[in-house]
Amino acid sequence: MSRVAYVNGTYVPHGQAVVHVEDRGFQFADGVYEVWSVFDGKLADFDGHMTRLARSLTELRIAIPMTRDALTRVLKETVRRNRVRNGIVYLQVTRGTARRDHPFPPEGTPPSVIVTARSMSAVKAEAQADRGVAVITQPDIRWGRCDIKTVGLLPNILAKQAARERGAYEAWFVDDMGLVTEGSSTNAWIVDEHGRLRTRDTQANILRGITRAAILALVEQEKIELDERPFSVDEAKRAREAFFTAAGAFVMPAVSIDGTTIGDGTPGPVTRKLRTLYLDQAKRGAI
Ligand code: PDD
Fold it and tell me: Looking at 42, 149, 160, 237, which residue is catalytic?
């Protein structure tokens, strides 16, 4: 089936979906993005991602490109036209197209908006979640505003590529104190050696994950003991369980870190419970 992308007001065949060479997203990574999971054709954690999008745009002083209702229609239509039952929908908004100059372009330059959607194999994801995956660590060399979901992802892709080249699924960034910040495209969690669920607080320079926030609400509901505090690589290696969260990955168990086996090398009970609860809730709440 042929894919379709939304580009600045028009639905076009994926192969012909292009932006201008002087789009500021292309020239400067001057843009933001969001990713929603799609379940049965519906978007999960819809409001959370919309709210974070508005915040990212405001922080960078990029104009809100269209009303929330109009954007909702475009996201849903892109999912529909691509016949995505399970997968993701991707939105990118940049500061628009203008002559390549570092300062912001003239007032009134319209932001660029692109939306794509693609299917993902639920079977493959379930198999990975059943077995668990490997994680490696990498120094966190990113800028100081990782709370903004910008398309400037060079450190993230270098880290993810390093993971792939070492047979791992994800790379966890580590700050200069030896503490894990987050994954290259996920938030990092452990159940420490004392049985306490740990994830770094969002005062730190990390993305405030929407999946992370949904899991925190479930943790409270289930009365699971939580310690929202950074953990070191050593603590992670000694942990009973480790996992990471994101749209598309949901709750993914990590069964080794830099080659050290976590727990008994299989996904642990807290991780499995949170994955099940999250998937149930996200599917039910999807719109
Ligand atoms: N990544 N941390 C980083 C650096 C991320 O890029 C992401 C999401 C997350 C998890 O956020 P959320 O739960 O809101 O998806 C944490 C998306 C999926 C991506 O880049 O494709």
Answer: 149
Question: Average pLDDT, stretch 88-93?
Answer: 98
Of 91, 120, 149, the position where a domain reaches its end is 120
Range of the domain at 245: 125-285
Query: Catalytic residue at 149?
Result: yes
Residue type, 137: T
Query: Where residue 2 falls among pLDDT bands split at 50, 70, 90?
Result: confident
Instruction: State how far Cα 116 lies from the chain centre.
Output: 15
User: In this structure, are 230 and 109 located in the same domain?
Assistant: no
How far is it, in rounded angstroms, from Cα 201 to Cα 218? 17
Mean pLDDT of the region 121-136: 95
Residue nearest ligand 1's atom 19 by CA: 185
DSSP class of residue 73?
A: H
CATH number at residue 252: 3.20.10.10
